[in-house]
TrEMBL record:
Keywords: DNA-binding, Transcription, Transcription regulation. Residues 9-68 form the HTH tetR-type domain. This is TetR family transcriptional regulator. It comes from Saccharothrix coeruleofusca. Residues 31-50 bind DNA.
């Protein structure tokens, strides 16, 4: 790999990391100039690789989904399903992936494939944790994704506390009593 190609790869990694951080902090309305500034690259360099903000958002979301899929697939090799599930949930929260997945974006085939890969691995992990008796009945991979999103949305100083509460609530014990209350005032 030549010097320019290596530099381009480093710049790309810096841009994606910066974009993830800026989008997590500011959401969809984050200016591309803030991403370039945080990455330490010029606007020309950023636009050569990402001609539109939508392309950048797409790649950030794809990387987030791939991180969740990688975490879940790696966890499937662990003998302790509950411990593996806890590490995946913690890693997903720490990565900010679920917050990034809330960005406005066009749904593409590669995003769908990455989501299916992540979902399938998470569902297998959920089934294993339930079969081993560690996970409450009725919990799905979708529940884990939504819970991770809720915890990620909390103030940084409270995330660990809320994650501990969520993990405790996921543990298998007696079933929840009665139906859930109706929403209303």
């Amino acid at each position: 790999m030549g010097g320019r190609e290596a530099e381009a790869r480093r710049n790309d990694a810096r841009v994606l990391a910066a974009a993830s951080a800026v989008f997590e902090e500011l959401g969809d309305d984050a200016p591309v100039s803030a991403i370039a500034r945080r990455a330490g690259v010029g606007m020309g360099s950023l636009y050569r690789r990402y001609p539109t903000k939508e392309v950048l958002v797409h790649d950030v979301c794809l990387a987030a989904l791939q991180r969740v899929a990688d975490l879940a697939e790696s966890a499937l090799r662990d003998d302790d399903a509950w411990g593996a599930l806890e590490r995946v949930l913690r890693g997903t929260v720490e990565s900010g992936a679920t917050k990034l997945l809330g960005l406005r974006r066009t749904r593409t085939d590669d995003l769908r494939a990455a989501a299916e890969r992540a979902g399938a691995a998470l569902e297998r992990l959920v089934e294993r944790a339930r079969a081993e008796g560690g996970l409450r009945e009725g919990v799905s991979a979708g529940d884990l994704l939504h819970l991770a999103r809720l915890v990620t949305g909390a103030e940084p100083g409270l995330r660990e506390r809320y994650l501990a509460l969520v993990l405790d609530g996921l543990r298998a014990r007696l079933p929840l009593p009665g139906p859930a209350p109706e929403w209303g005032f």
